[in-house]
Amino acid sequence: MTNRLLSPAELEAALRAIGAERYHNLHPFHRALHDGKLTKGQVQAWALNRYYYQASIPAKDATLLARLPTAELRREWRRRLIDHDGTEPGTGGVARWLKLTDGLGLDRAYVESLDGLLPGTRFAVEAYVHFVRERSILEAIASSLTELFSPTIISERVSGMLRNYDFVTEETLAYFTPRLTQAPQDSAFALAYVKEHARTVEQQQAVLNALKFKCGVLWSMLDELDYAYVSPGNIPPGAFRPQEDA
């Protein structure tokens, strides 16, 4: 816990240190995904479970949007909903993620039904939505700061998957290209907001804890995938079962 008030630069450094230690690009499942060590079924399981996270982001952001006190803040946060939901059917990040699952050979209706989700994925994603809905505006905005680190993981993921999997194409991974510009724009705003509004030791600690929580959400989702699909015999009843394990 911080025992003194940090300068804005020190607070930013502390936030970046959390990402350097806890961001899920360090997780063994991500390393295996990037390095081409997963089967197609394991990649399918990742994409299917990650869909629930992607589809929940606009719902999460809408809960925060409803609480923002100024038109300026609402306009800024509304852009995130547009990025993910699009302006018409078939546009936006969620639709592009479904093109990814399509490209991996998953039935779209099955993906959207959520019937194949791992229980741990559901719990982790819903905990994040609940956190943003119930915590302070400052903590909710701070929890989005994993976007500070996402360009690195996106670059690794795209280059590694294209290099190592013959069933992956640039079109399949089209979701990620806009995120290389959207995420830095979003994180720049959130970081500036946090640095300006975390004005007490307690508020700064809450901000740091919010980012740790969000890193934990993303890490735990990969823990669940690793346990279910990399360790043999651990797929829970009702969850997606790759054809090679059927």
Automatic annotation (TrEMBL):
**GO annotation (BP), single:** pyrroloquinoline quinone biosynthetic process
Give the source's domain of life in one word. Bacteria
Q: Which residues form the Thiaminase-2/PQQC domain?
A: 13-223
Kindly state which keywords UniProt assigns to this record, in alphabetical order: Oxidoreductase, PQQ biosynthesis
HAMAP family linked: PQQ_syn_PqqC
Record NCBIfam families: PQQ_syn_pqqC (TIGR02111)
What name appears for this protein in its UniProt entry?
Answer: Pyrroloquinoline-quinone synthase
Species whose genome carries this gene = Acetobacter tropicalis NBRC 101654
Taxonomic path: Bacteria, Pseudomonadati, Pseudomonadota, Alphaproteobacteria, Acetobacterales
